């Protein structure tokens, strides 16, 4: 069993820490890049997605000028143990709409209704929700009331309705993360450890991987529409 808490202001640091650990532990699952751990660039993307979610958690309460809400599932036996979370972005000028930015469930709590429970909580407040996910996750989100709308890069775009909202959703500019000092330091460390050729190969592997995912998403959406 689990309990759900909705946050519209910054949540306690122990909750933040567990969410961020879950994010970096599940990079392949929740990132549109979805790099496997075997790729030498994996640590860079781990840092980047962790910092991105950190920025959104900081934005709870409106301090960064965008609307952010968080649903956290905690263990019924231990209220301080995070079982999962959903980070959503309410849409301006459309009180029924939101975008699902990030969602994850701890490995030990999967197949216990946590994801469905958190999503039910979100949809009770925002019945018009949109998200992007991997092809493999489409059936799970269809079971929660979403339908395929199209392809977005490496992922499938899904919505609880057959149209997108006309409102505006505020998002943070996270591109500077990849030019930050921390990312440059990680890259320098990896370069020194593995060498230039290995890093170039890792970048080529990443690019091929992303191309394959994009083709897979586009092919899947086409098959659904046909």
Would you give an account of this structure?
By secondary structure, the chain is of the alpha+beta class. The chain has a single domain (about 1-225), classed as Gcn5-related N-acetyltransferase (GNAT) (Aminopeptidase, 3-Layer(aba) Sandwich). Helices cover about 40% and strands about 25% of the residues. It has helices at about 15-25, 25-30, 40-60, 115-125, 140-145, 180-195, 195-225, and strands spanning about 1-5, 70-75, 80-90, 95-105, 130-135, 145-150, 155-160, 170. Strands 1, 2, 3, 4, 5, 6, 7 and 8 form an 8-stranded mixed sheet that branches. A hairpin with a 2-residue loop joins strand 6 and strand 7 (about 155-160). Helix 1 packs antiparallel against helix 3. The mean pLDDT is about 95. Pfam families: Acetyltransf_1. It comes from Pseudomonas extremaustralis. One of its GO terms (molecular function) is acyltransferase activity, transferring groups other than amino-acyl groups. InterPro entries: Acyl_CoA_acyltransferase (IPR016181), GNAT_dom (IPR000182). This is Acetyltransferase (GNAT) family protein.
CATH level 3 topology: Aminopeptidase
What would you call the shape?
A: globular
Q: What is the CATH class?
A: Alpha Beta
Helix content percent band = 40-55%
Proper CATH architecture:
3-Layer(aba) Sandwich
Supply the number of helical segments: 7
What percent strand?
A: 15-25%
Task: Summarize this structure briefly.
This protein is an alpha+beta fold.
């Amino acid at each position: 069993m689990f309990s759900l808490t909705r946050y519209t202001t910054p949540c306690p640091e122990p909750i933040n820490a567990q969410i961020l650990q879950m994010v970096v532990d599940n990079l392949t699952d929740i990132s549109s890049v979805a790099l496997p751990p075997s790729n030498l660039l994996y640590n860079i993307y781990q840092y980047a997605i962790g910092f991105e979610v950190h920025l959104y958690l900081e934005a709870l309460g409106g301090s960064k000028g965008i609307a952010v809400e968080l649903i956290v599932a905690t263990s019924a036996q231990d209220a301080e143990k995070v079982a999962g979370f959903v980070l959503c972005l309410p849409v301006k000028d459309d009180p029924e709409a939101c975008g699902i930015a990030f969602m994850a469930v701890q490995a030990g709590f999967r197949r216990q209704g946590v994801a469905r429970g958190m999503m039910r909580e979100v949809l009770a407040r925002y019945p018009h929700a949109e998200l992007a996910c991997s092809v493999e996750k489409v059936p799970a989100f269809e079971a929660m009331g979403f339908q395929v709308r199209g392809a977005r890069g490496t992922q499938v775009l899904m919505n609880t309705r057959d149209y997108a909202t006309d409102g505006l959703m505020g998002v943070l500019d996270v591109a500077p993360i990849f030019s930050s000092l921390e990312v440059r330091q990680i890259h320098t460390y990896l370069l020194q450890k593995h060498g230039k050729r290995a890093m170039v190969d890792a970048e080529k592997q990443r690019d091929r991987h992303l191309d394959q995912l994009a083709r897979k998403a586009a092919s899947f959406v086409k098959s659904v529409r046909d």
